[in-house]
Fold this sequence. Notes:
This protein has one domain. The protein has 13 helices and no strands. Helix 1 packs antiparallel against helix 11. InterPro entries: EmrE-like, Sugar_P_trans_dom, TPT_transporter.
Amino acid sequence: xxxxxxxxxxxxxxxxxxxxxxxxxxxxxxxxxxxxxxxxxxxxxxxxxxxxxxxxxxxxxxxxxxxxxxxxxxxxxxxxxxxxxxxxxxxxxxxxxxxxxxxxxxxxxxxxxxxxxxxxxxxxxxxxxxxxxxxxxxxxxxxxxxxxxxxxxxxxxxxxxxxxxxxxxxxxxxxxxxxxxxxxxxxxxxxxxxxxxxxxxxxxxxxxxxxxxxxxxxxxxxxxxxxxxxxxxxxxxxxxxxxxxxxxxxxxxxxxxxxxxxxxxxxxxxxxxxxxxxxxxxxxxxxxxxxxxxxxxxxxxxxxxxxxxxxxxxxxxxxxx
Length: 321
């Protein structure tokens, strides 16, 4: 009987682990850069056009997906199987666009730290919406973990020092639609007409960019033209070259954040990625305090800790079920 090579297996395992850690590092870096520069562009540099900024993110995703699949052929290109699949992707794109748009909008009225605290409650919406739309039912222990998740988010909201109603509304809307998108995305990735993650991201970005372009023309075109004609540069003393550099690298990083997210889910599983995502949330809170001087009350920090504990328990129970 032929035996495997332990040394070769060890090297292969080590290489896979290193590759996984590289994607984790890329996800942490690109996501934190996007979140923090979104906040800086919208609330400090006068670029108060969250719909247009989100559209730029999707356009960047289309461009780099084209390079990776059509020009360099690093990733395999897949075609849509039916008109029904196209409609389902269009619906996913609408959810994705609304989620990102509301998240960016919230930066006008809320801190990055508060956004991460509310966003950590996404598993609650995923569980509820999964049952409503697809009849997904888990063990009672899974639903029990939702209490600390929601309770912690409520404590964080109560302890938020700079809470505004609009900031809370847009963050809740972003978290709700993110949960809806997660449920629908899982359906498309696991259904009969499934696409792999990079191709689903590419087709979704096409529809999302079109939706966001129309919305931006309807709601932001007049104020954007007025902004172009003015000399306003926001509240900070930023040089124009720095502003345009951010406006260039922010969408590029958005593609890397989206791509690394899909790759990590493909290389591991959604539950592992959820743990990675929550660690990323902690980093973003730390960077928000460090770079923007955001003050986080002890009560808000306590609520966030309770929510993260609930999410860890949720992940464990989901894995068991």
